[in-house]
Amino acid sequence: MRVSNKNGTKAPHKAIMLLSLIELVRNDHIFSHRFRFSVELFNTFTSKWNELVPNDSGFLCNFFVPFYHLQSEPFWNFLDDTGEVLNRIKPTNSVKKLLQKDFLIQIDPTLFYLIRDYQTRQSLSDTLILNYIVPLHS
Fold first, then answer.
1. Beta bridge pairs of residue 126
2. How do beta strands 9-10 and 5-6 pair?
3. Strand ranges of the sheet holding 85-86, from the earlier edge strand across to the other edge
């Protein structure tokens, strides 16, 4: 993943978003590779951030950063209700405004299938933690 760096440390935002997505899929709160933004996604991100990112990391908990910047990754898209990819949705810093927008989030169907599989899900989670979270604790 392309992420920003701060003093040589990779920003954890996208990794925390993916770990949040993994948790919601694991707990059967997300059933498809296409889903809508939810307060639950926001709350899971915030909870994961508080659990995994040290306060002195130099990074701030901001859900909206990875939510929008994941658009630059090949596995994350925003779709309109007809299934057409939205090139770029405008950023907002409001959960209420996101809930009012009419779009779907789509992750790559193969990635979704892999997240549904226990062993692959564990491997993906471990890789994200090893590469993006562990360095924050050094």
1. none
2. antiparallel
3. 34-35, 104-107, 76-79, 85-86
Per-domain boundaries in the chain: 5-137
Q: What pLDDT band is residue 42 in, cutting at 50, 70 and 90?
A: very high
Name the DSSP letter for residue 8: T
How many residues in total does the chain contain?
138
Structure tokens at 53: 């990112």
Round to whole Å and give the CA distance between 69 and 76. Answer: 9
On whether the pTM is more than 0.90, the answer is yes
Average pLDDT taken over every residue of the chain:
93
pLDDT at 91: 76
Q: Chain centroid to CA 138: how far?
A: 23
Residue with tokens 């993943």: 1
| φ/ψ (deg, to 5) at 23 | -65, -40
